[in-house]
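New to this. Help decode both lines:
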Amino acid sequence: MSLVAIVGRPNVGKSTLFNRILGRRSAIVDDHPGVTRDRHYAVAEWAGKLFTLVDTGGFVPDSADIMEAAIREQAAAAIEEADLVLFVVDAKEGIHPIDRDLAAILRRASKKVRVVVNKVDSPGRTADAAEFYGLGLGDPLVISALGGKGTGDMLDAVTLELRGLPEAPPIHG
């Protein structure tokens, strides 16, 4: 089964997106950074396509903080095992220096990556998403994980990316 990893800096909505895709509250969601620390796996389905989804903690490159370093290692492991990475960014805040650092890491990883611009909760925010072309990772997918806007189109894009990959047993039940 293909593995899709959700990565991004702290508080961009990774766990909210994880829960939205699953259609249930599986990951803990909180406004405080550092709540998600370990990788969290679940089997997801969209349009008849099953895939393993993994939620990760907020990625903070080069931090000397022990907890942030451990979270970074967990996210790096998820990227390594992923067939597709959903790189979640925050439309309200725009491109953050951590987003640029993580984009560079993802380009070096030679993985399929889709930039997911989250928190597009109003029509005015849709135009803000164009800024994320600047990360150099292709066409951004515009969503509101909390409200559900655009998540169906995003999942259509995910299953299209996964098409043609060999089917294998899930990595984690």
Remarks:
- The longest strand covers residues 40-46.
- Helices lie at 14-22, 66-81, 97-109, 123-128, 151-162.
